[in-house]
Amino acid sequence: MSIDIDLIIKKYKPGRREELIPLLQEIQDENGHLSEESIIRVGSFVGLSTTKIYGLATFYDQFKFIPSGKVRIKICNGTSCFLNGSQAVLNKFREETGLAAGQTSRDGILSYEIVTCMGGCNNGPVITINGEYNPAIKPEQLPDLIKKLKFIIEND
Amino acid sequence: MEDLKKFLIDKVLMLESDTLPPETEKVLRKVRREKSDNAVIFISSGTSSLIAGSEKTRAAIKTYIDENERGAELVNVGCNSPLSFEPLVCIQLPGKNRLYFRNITEEKVEPLLNGIFHNDINKDDLAGQHGTKGFELWQGIPFIDDLPFFANQKRVVLSNCGCYDPESIEEYIARGGYRAFVKAIRHYTYEEVCNIIEKSGLRGRSGGGYPTGLKWKQALNASAASRYLICNAKESDPGAFTDRTILESDPHRLVEGIATASYAIGASSAIVFFRKESQYALNRLQKAIDKAREYGLLGHNILSSGYNLDIIIRKEPGAFVCGEETALLSTLEGKRGMPQLKPPYPTTSGLFSKPTVINNVETLMNVPLIMENGPEWFRTMGTENSPGTKVFAIAGKGRFSGVVEVEMGTTIKSIVDNIADGIKDGKDLKAVQLGGASGSFLTSGNLEVPVDYDVMAEKGIPMGAGGFVIIDENTCIVDLVRYFMEFIRNESCGKCIPCREGTGRMLEILDSVIKKPISEDSGTTLERFKGVMQLETIASVMKDTSLCGLGQTAPNPFLSALENFREEFEEHIFDRKCRANVCRGLRTFSIDVDKCTGCTACASKCPVNAIYGTRLQPFFIVEDKCTGCGICYDICKFSAIKVR
């Protein structure tokens, strides 16, 4: 893990605060989340205390501090999807999984987040599963969908 | 390829005269695929098309071409049609007009292509033909441009969208691209470019409508060693997608716009601040920038003019408030994205305290057009004080949705009636919401307002950056206001108290309005009424005292909804009723005795045990216990549960 971080950090210049966010973004893209270790490493590289970096990273929605699940789900709650019933989908999803947005299930399989507008304004509500689009989702489709996903992961 | 690159640079971009010699034009026609011996198949490939399944269609077309028509060419283009037409496929047979086919899913590909290559056109999926000069007409086929969706638009900024391969800089140059930029850096000084833009009367398209030329001059006149240009492509309003569509369909013109604007203010580095969800558009823009660098249109000593420029892309880390100018600058500096007090304005002290111009994507898209056609041409469109056009992203319940462009001065009503073509499923229009999460509602009373910065500002209607949501009678306005308030509460940065506390408090009160209290004793009712009485006061305090635009405009949806739909709010508060039957918390349920079979499905699922009865006899709901969750309604197979 630490080798990965070193490889990424090498691409940046030390001590430059304006490169802090792109650096954190790249680490998150590679690892899926920001680990404690990576934040300490970035802190000493940029010349800022760890608390400062946490303070910055927690301000933005993008950064996550726990590993995300194997199946990453994004549910769109933009205006169009809202008008087409995304709230019902969200409620059903919460009910089925017992997760809040940004959380990962205990078995490490599912994690989900709410986003605003992914571009499927005509076929809302849209959800993406590991980057694959699923337009016009109805709440009653969700239990089967989640079962199927868990089945695929467990038998993988 | 190298030959073509050299040809395009020497014979097209560096050409002194305005008209191209015929032999050059001949080559360009080939690059534009107008003179092709084979069929060309264009497939739309934006995010919206991907969601509609265009990737599968593309694969099917590819297989068909490999098996049958080996010569045919398959080209990715951006979106330009109503979203309901996706996946859109356009076919150009040699020498004939382009034919557009809508909703071409995977299985429709083979019959469609079989038909078209054997002169038997399937009329069911046909959207129309597009007329191009010098091409043969298809007899008896309507023109796609005559569809109300297109006929009532004035596509200037979007003119290239959906017509060419967004990953090909050659095609962009063959369509007249980059000539304005090259002319500017070779023949004009910084001031002259600023003057042209100022004369054209172009105003910032992000909503405020500040004159672009003036902004540039302020930055140019501020004394500093270096300056920055920032293109704000962080379109974060829920339901706005104009910038994303533009970037997916025509990224080269934006690069040209950024380059021209940077030259005008003498900046040697430009930054595009990008939305994190639009990965597809980001890839296209990155490719466009790389290509421009390869052609020597970016980088060191551009085309031997002595001007240096580099464009970098920064992805936003996810905060709505970063769309605000000063918060955006903080984010780019690697700090928390919190707004600062203005003045000093960014044009005098912006990024790293250097003069910085921040422009919206649509504003910069207009720049190459003005440089090419002149400020007088730009002034022929639109109104006296707001020349040009405006791009809107129509979403919601209109019959057609998608990215459209209208001339300034067009009324909102005519956009709804003519371009969106009314409301889906024959419903009635309730309101139009402009300007995203902090915009306001327009109802039948003020729908006649023209798209014009001054007129709209006078009436207190924010134009916004392009969000245009059509709302029908089935939408509950209180629920929608609550949705916007929740969005802003989550996105408030927490720096100033009116916004941080105000949004939270307003959301709490709105929640109490749309939910049924657990016990309706006098205490909770009194609390609820006290809250309701405070809503307007909180809104006006937030409006007056918040630091940045986000906080000041946060109560807009509520205030304009209250002005236009006071009755509906009162119904929710006093009668505890939602006329659109959306607010789950206010619904009351009862069981239709005739339809109930006594299957016990509802009683076993009711979380508060409010349903009683004997098996195989009609059941009943105890209204006092019912929380209105609606589980019984969803579960009943005999539609025996009635909602009130």
List SSEs of chain A in N-to-C order.
Answer: HHHHEHHEEEH
- Uncertain parts of chain A: none
CATH topology description of the largest domain in chain A:
Glutaredoxin
Shape of chain B: globular
CATH architecture of the largest domain in chain A: 3-Layer(aba) Sandwich
Structural class of chain A: alpha+beta
Major sheet description of chain B: 5 strands, mixed
Name the CATH class of the largest domain in chain A: Alpha Beta
The percent range for helix content of chain B is: 40-55%
- The first-level CATH class name of the largest domain in chain B: Alpha Beta
Strand runs of chain A, count? 4
Instruction: Name the shape of chain A in a single word.
Output: elongated
What's the domain count of chain B?
6
Which chain pair shows the most residues in contact? A-B, 36 and 50 residues
Explain the layout of strands and helices:
The complex is a heterodimer of chains A (156) and B (644).
Chain A (H helix, E strand, L loop, with lengths): L1 H9 L9 H12 L4 H11 L3 H10 L11 E6 L2 H5 L2 H12 L12 E6 L11 E3 L2 E3 L7 H13 L2
Parallel strand pairs in A: 1-2
Antiparallel strand pairs in A: 1-3, 3-4
Helix pairs in contact in A: 1-2, 2-3, 3-4
Chain B lengths: L1 H12 L8 H10 L8 E5 L2 H6 L1 H14 L5 E5 L11 E4 L5 E4 L7 H9 L8 E5 L17 H4 L17 H6 L4 H9 L2 H11 L11 H10 L6 E6 L8 H8 L1 H15 L3 E6 L4 H16 L15 E6 L9 H8 L23 E5 H13 L1 H5 L9 E8 L5 E6 L4 H8 L9 E6 L5 E3 L10 H6 L8 E6 L4 H15 L5 H18 L7 H24 L3 H5 L2 H9 L1 H10 L13 E3 L9 H5 L5 E2 L7 E2 L9 H5 L5 E3 L1
Parallel strand pairs in B: 1-2, 6-7, 6-9, 7-8, 10-14
Antiparallel strand pairs in B: 1-3, 3-4, 4-5, 10-11, 12-13, 12-14, 15-18, 16-17
Helix pairs in contact in B: 8-12, 8-15, 9-10, 9-12, 11-13, 12-15, 19-20, 20-21
